[in-house]
Amino acid sequence: MARTAILDIDGTLVDTNYQHALAWYRAFRQSGIVLPIWRIHRHIGMGGDQVIAALTDERTEEEKGEEIRSAEKALYMAMIEEVEPMSGSRDLIKRLKDGGATVVLASSAKGSEVEHYLDLLDARELADDWTMSDDVEATKPEPDLVKAALEKAGADASEAAMLGDTPWDCEAASRAGVPTVALMTGGFSEAELRDGGAVAVFESIPELIERMDETPLA
Q: C-alpha 99: how far from its chain's center?
């Protein structure tokens, strides 16, 4: 049983993955690079400082990286009002808190985005703490985000479990020594999530809540 629950925000608690995929597509296209959106989606969850080289090459990152990232940020923020919480998100946080867990919401997004999500989830008084871009040096799949969440909780990896929605979440948590429960809400299959290291996979938050006792989040 985990004393600390680290809950990924993007794609897990709030429905953002496809808006991000579309924003990246438009940002690349503005720089003269047309990529199929399905390929971009396969990299959602990876940090923005890594996704450009992963989708293209190091030269593109060096020459156009900052330009593309800046464009993606603006394009995504133009759609952020369309973002809604996943069904059951706040109920999950409350269930974990009522069970005695320390709950840290995890994101490497800029502060303005995280603040928006906290308002959407009405989670400011419910969660114990949260992370944002200022808390990490390297983004997923590096383990910095998970380690930052552990530090905010004052917890050891052996006392924690992560909830995420992408293989990058699973890999980051694994590198930090934390098991991951995964949701299919980010658009990745059960096989992809298990290959990434997930110890349990659920279709949605309501299903997870119903079967919580089967997971390290119990």
A: 23
